Amino acid sequence: MAIAIIQQVGGTMLIMLILLDVFLTVLYARMGSGLLSRRVGRIVWRCFWVIAQTRPDKGDRILSFCGPVILAVLVFTWVSGLALGNAFLIHPMLGRSVQSTSGKTPTDLVSALYAGGSSLSIIGSSDFTPRTSGSRLLYLFNSIAGLSVTSLTLTYLMQIYNQLQQRNAFALKVYLATRRTGDAAELVAGIAPEGSWTAGASSLWELAAETAVTKEAHHFYPMLFYMRFPDHYYSISFITLVLLDSITLIRCALGEDYNQLKHLGALDELWEGSLLLLTALEQNFLQAGAAHREQPNRSEISCWTDRFMRAKDRLRAAGISTADDEQQALSSYVAMRSQWNHHIRRLAPSMMYRIEDIDSATYGKSVGEIRD
User: Is the pLDDT of residue 225 over 80?
Assistant: First the structure.
């Protein structure tokens, strides 16, 4: 009798845990709110990470399967958790309040698992049938819970892939805006062709709006973080780097003729939205929390100086006037870049992207010479 009570109490707690996790993950929809879903994501990602480390040549391909596998494992965890919880509840009832529709009722745990899993279907095609009011209510609850979890799961999966498509479209837009170079200077040159930035202001507002949408998509659907593609330009690290570097170049490298552009509200939205996205992902997915801002060392400053000079040359070639005081402009660039560079340098490797791919305009092949 005591064992039966322990079984049913444990089964009830397991069912409540699964339903609470579904509620927090799908309905409450906040980054970091899931109970099981967060742990499932991290465990599966870690397994894929270890496998990818053993095959560096196939690492990108291996990790591209991680996001879909996490979703499959999560759905399996929810369904199997409900079935197992119901098996613990129904096991003591077999042969009494729950009986077989044909022949003698088996009382083993496997039969209880089959009965518990079948009870989640609203069709009720199981070989077992409830015989008492209490067991009938349990079956009714299970059918409602099973139908609800199934519907919510399907909606959740559809929303994730819809948001993923929008994120990828945004990433590709940013990449193409750099003329497929990954260089923010190319994006700035496109915003102000031949020195005229009036038409480019609308592009900046559009980018700011899409940055906010991308940030909220990851806030509502944290599993998007694990949707990794082999092409580096689909990564959050690349998107935010190009946008933040573009803002830094606009406000530091451009001349006084562009003071109105420098104070455009879209730049503030882009800056804050990109930093919010970076820090939110750091705090919720990287074990040590958000990175602390550190002063750049000489190697970093040297790389940034070379990058800044190349960017100024590119802007001048595009017919854009640059700052007269080059040293002051460079100092401003270093100061602004030090506010966000460490976030990129930390987030990119966590998704197994090389920093020289993410920020080829700055580091390129010389990144191996940089040591923090």
Answer: yes
Contact predicate 277/344, CB 8 Å: no
CB atoms within 10 A of CB 365: 8
**What is the SS3 assignment for 255-304?**
CHHHHHHHCCHHHHHHHHHHHHHHHHHHHHHCCCCCCCCCCCCHHHHHHH
CB atoms within 10 A of CB 30: 11
> 50, 177 in Cβ contact below 8 A?
no
More confident residue, 340 or 29: 340
Report phi then psi at 146, rounded to 5: -65, -45
For every residue of the chain, which 3-state class applies, written as one string?
A: CHHHHHHHHHHHHHHHHHHHHHHHHHHHCCCCCCCHHHHHHHHHHHHHHHHHHHCHHHHHHHHCCHHHHHHHHHHHHHHHHHHHHHHHHHHHHECCCEEECCCCCCCCHHHHHHHHHHCCCCCCCCCEEECCHHHHHHHHHHHHHHHHHHHHHHHHHHHHHHHHHHHHHHHHHHHHHCCCCCCHHHHHHHHCHHHCCCCHHHHHHHHHHHHHHHHHHHHHCHHHHHCCCCCHHHCHHHHHHHHHHHHHHHHHHECHHHHHHHCCHHHHHHHHHHHHHHHHHHHHHCCCCCCCCCCCCHHHHHHHHHHHHHHHHHHHHCCCCECCCHHHHHHHHHHHHCCCHHHHHHHHHHCCCCHHHHCCCCCHHHHHHCCC
How would residue 236 be classed by pLDDT, with cut points 50, 70 and 90? very high
- Whether residue 370 contacts residue 300, with contact meaning beta carbons closer than 8 Å, is answered with yes
Q: Give the predicted TM-score (pTM) of the model.
A: 0.89
Residue that wins the pLDDT comparison between 282 and 267: 267
Please provide the average confidence, as pLDDT, over all residues in the chain.
Answer: 90
Return all residues near 262 (Cβ < 8 A) that are at least 6 apart.
250, 251, 254
What are the tens digits of pLDDT across the range 59-106?
A: 899 999 999 999 999 999 999 999 999 999 999 998 888 888 887 888
What's the pLDDT score for residue 294? 67
Q: How many CA atoms lie within 13 A of 176 on its CB side?
A: 7
The whole-angstrom separation of Cα 262 and Cα 251 is: 5
